[in-house]
């Protein structure tokens, strides 16, 4: 009986050298893959994803983000610092307020495609 959640294995060992050659030629350096892994870790926190989702809709200050997400400004600021270090958000000062927005359209695309994927 096949189990749906288990990965299946080959019944015999047969290495496909032509495919391996193609894959090896395209495989990024380990440093790049590590950086990509670190980026995806940032998306592993629901609070950070919620912040990014809200920032997909509008540029907001820390006060607005805290209110929208029912969190303290301190908690929001902590998560924003992580998002900023990961180059996912940017900030600008206007008077006494600091406004945050997505760093670029790539972030919006990642969120959008992620939502599409989980909705399938």
Task: Report on this structure.
This protein is 59% helix and 12% strand. The chain is mainly α and 120 residues long. The chain has one domain: Arc Repressor Mutant, subunit A (Orthogonal Bundle), CATH 1.10.10. The chain has a three-stranded antiparallel β-sheet.
Concise account of the structure shown:
With 120 residues, this protein is mainly alpha-helical.
List key phrases describing it.
120 residues; mainly alpha; elongated; Arc Repressor Mutant, subunit A; three-stranded antiparallel β-sheet
Order of helices and strands: HHHEHHEEH
Structure annotation, total helices: 6
Strand arrangement, largest sheet?
Answer: 1-3-2
Query: What is the CATH C-level name?
Result: Mainly Alpha
The CATH topology turns out to be Arc Repressor Mutant, subunit A
Q: Please give the domain count.
A: 1
Q: What quaternary form is this?
A: single chain
CATH architecture designation: Orthogonal Bundle
Roughly how many Å apart are the termini? 26 Å
Question: What is the C-alpha radius of gyration, as a whole number of Å?
Answer: 20 Å
């Amino acid at each position: 009986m096949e189990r749906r959640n288990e990965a299946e294995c080959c019944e015999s060992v047969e290495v496909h050298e032509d495919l391996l050659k193609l894959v090896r030629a395209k495989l990024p350096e380990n440093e790049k893959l590590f950086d990509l892994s670190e980026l995806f870790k940032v998306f592993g926190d629901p609070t950070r994803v919620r912040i990014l989702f809200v920032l997909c809709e509008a540029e907001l200050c820390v006060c607005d983000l805290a209110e929208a997400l029912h969190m303290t400004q301190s908690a929001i600021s902590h998560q924003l610092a992580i998002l900023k270090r990961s180059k996912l958000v940017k900030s600008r000062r206007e008077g006494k307020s600091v406004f945050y927005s997505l760093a670029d359209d790539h972030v919006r695309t990642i969120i959008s495609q992620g939502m599409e994927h989980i909705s399938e």
